[in-house]
Amino acid sequence: MKRAVLFDLDGVLVDSRHAQLATLAGFATSALGRRVTVADLPAWAATTPHEHVLAELGYTGVISQDGWDAATATATLTAEVFPFVADTLSALRAAGVATGIVTMRSRQRVHWLLPPAVLDLFDVVVCYEDAAPKPAPDGLLLALDKLGVSPSEAVFVGDMESDMHAAQAAGVTPIGSGWGFSDPYTLTRAGATVVLPDAESLAGTFLSLMGTGRRSA
Q1: Rg (CA), the chain
Q2: Domain count of the chain?
Q3: What is the domain extent for residue 174?
Q4: What pLDDT score was predicted for residue 217?
């Protein structure tokens, strides 16, 4: 039976923590008319909706998409794809496992973060405009429908509570990314079947998790 590994984008495939914080700081600087640096952001800024972070800084107005896109486009120049990504995707493809991305990023911003050579390694990419955002399961179910894969034959790798909740709601095995934005305790509490501490031998780990032991978890 066909299997699939689905991935969140930020913090899982792309080291974008600084880029996300720089986007917030850049937008806040423009919107508030004063200098705001990454160091000025609250400690929880990376894992909190940006509306809440901006409100903490004193901005409660409407977030201009043009302004946000400008800050994002500049900040994402600092983001880098994790070194393991290309080898992992190639190994999964060689094993006959389909792969996909389910992200709350818009399609335009996905193309800012991922070079074409990496995007071409994925079989499907589901973005913000394609389905209701996580923790709703819609994006995961859409990706699996496009791939022709049953939820019981798929895993979703994410680094946020919303990722774990979305996977559970979709009937997909939730896997925590220990190198992402959230700590292992948070991901375990949110329902992760396992939290991988690092990205070593990732393809082999996924293939093992998708064996008979995974179904009995």
Answers
A1: 17
A2: 2
A3: 3-15+80-215
A4: 35
State how beta strands 97-102 and 173-177 pair.
unpaired
Mean pLDDT of 189-200: 92
Mean pLDDT over 92-97 rounds to 94
CATH number at residue 195: 3.40.50.1000
Query: What is the Cα–Cα distance from 53 to 59, expressed in whole angstroms?
Result: 9
For the stretch 40-61, what's the b/e string if a residue is b when 16 or more beta carbons lie within 10 angstroms of its beta carbon? Answer: ebeeebbbeeeeebbeebebee
- Give the other-Cβ count within 10 Å of 201's Cβ: 13
Structure tokens at 172: 């997909």
Quote the percentage of the chain above a pLDDT of 70.
97
Residues 6 or more apart whose CB falls under 8 angstroms from that of 144 comprise 4, 6, 150, 151, 154, 170, 172
At residue 199, the pLDDT reads 85
